[in-house]
Specification:
Blueprint: H1 3-25, E1 28-29, E2 35-36, H2 38-49, H3 55-62, H4 66-78, E3 82-86, E4 94-98, H5 100-126, H6 129-154
Antiparallel strand pairs: 1-2, 3-4
């Protein structure tokens, strides 16, 4: 690969990441008029797979602090998506469940993914196993490079591009 081709590939990956970030920051209507953020809809999906989770378990699974999970879940209760119940294991613990509206939003989210990822899925099915392995390897290297950059940014001495 020539340096120009590498730069072209890097620039394309960067553009894709920027566009993805723009989409991820915006609340989305999955078909019932309720705007949900990415963390909210993914928490709906988590609770649909594991009803009765605690706030601590949601925080751990989502990779966020317990305080952030608690704030988000409070908003989701206000939106009518989640209900809190006393845990059967301890009166001091809360168990989280989707409301009928939360379940509906989960179904709408699944339909959204089926409708919007089908062209990408069809394309990937047309690729050879060798090409898919190369693509996965490329994304793994990119992922590792981003992890290294994030680790560097967390250190006391931040460096430029």
């Amino acid at each position: 690969m020539k340096i120009e081709e590498f730069k072209q590939l890097s620039t394309l990956m960067e553009r894709v990441v920027h566009k993805y970030n723009q989409i991820e920051k915006r609340p989305w209507d999955y078909g019932n008029g309720l705007l949900l953020t990415r963390p909210e809809i993914h928490t709906v999906m988590l609770l649909s797979q594991t009803p009765g989770m605690s706030v601590t378990a949601v925080a751990q699974k989502r990779g966020i602090t317990k305080g952030a999970a608690s704030q988000m879940l409070y908003k989701m209760v206000d939106k009518g998506l989640v209900e809190k119940r006393v845990s059967p294991e301890s009166d001091a613990q809360v168990s989280l469940y989707l409301t009928p509206l939360g379940e509906e939003v989960g179904r709408l989210h699944d339909a959204y993914h089926r409708n919007n990822t089908e062209p990408v899925y069809q394309y990937f099915q047309s690729l050879s196993e060798e090409t898919l392995k190369a693509l996965v390897g490329t994304l793994e290297i990119f992922d590792q490079a981003l992890d290294a950059r994030l680790k560097m940014l967390k250190s006391p001495l931040e460096t430029a591009d």
